[in-house]
Amino acid sequence: MIQVLIGRESVKNRLQLSTGNKTEQVGPLGAVPQSVSKQHCLLTIDGKVMTITNRNIKNATYVNGIQVESSKVTQADVVELGYGHYVLNWSLVMNFIGKLQDPVSQEVDISGLESVWQSYKHQQDQLQRTQTMTNVLRGGLPILTIGGVALGFIINKDGKGTGAHMIVIYAVALILMVLLFVKSFMDARRIPKQKEELNKRMLHRYACPKCHYFFGFQPYDVIRTNLDACPKCKVKLKK
Question: Which string of DSSP letters, residue by residue, matches 2-65?
Answer without folding.
Answer: EEEEEEE-TTT--EEEEETTEEEEESSTT-S-TTS-TT-EEEEEETTEEEEEESSTT--EEETT
